[in-house]
Amino acid sequence: MRVLVVDDSRAMRLIVIRQLRQAGLDDAEFIEAQHGIEALQHLGEGTVDLVLSDWNMPEMNGLELLRELRSRDDQVLFGFVTSEGTPDMVRLARESGASFLISKPFTPNNFRDTFEAIGVRL
Length: 122
What we know:
This protein is of the alpha/beta class. It has one domain (2-44, 52-108): Rossmann fold (3-Layer(aba) Sandwich). The protein has 5 helices and 5 strands; from the N terminus they run E-H-E-H-E-H-E-H-E-H. The chain has a 5-stranded parallel sheet with strand order 2-1-3-4-5, sandwiched between helices. Helix 1 (10-23) links the parallel strand 1 (2-6) and strand 2 (29-33). The longest helix is centred in the first third of the chain and has 14 residues, at 10-23. It is globular and about 30 Å long. It starts with a strand and ends with a helix.
């Protein structure tokens, strides 16, 4: 499985990757991007199975990234990992095509439970 982790904080990208490995994705290949524009470049270079994106980032935020992917008819599995998880944001994320939103702080169990609920095998 190839996983693209998009966050403007390198430390947060590393935390997400560590938590994903502990959740059961220890054999995954992880790709990192600082913002949506960089994520689009990576997505154009090869197949990605899962995108985990922060919501607020410079250049292109996570919602803009998701909407751009869906406008291209790219149905890659997409979820948000963000500090902002209001009901309105969850609704907006789902309406835009996200499969889930995990609020920070999170644990490996949050990822495991979320992936199980949407049918992703670890």
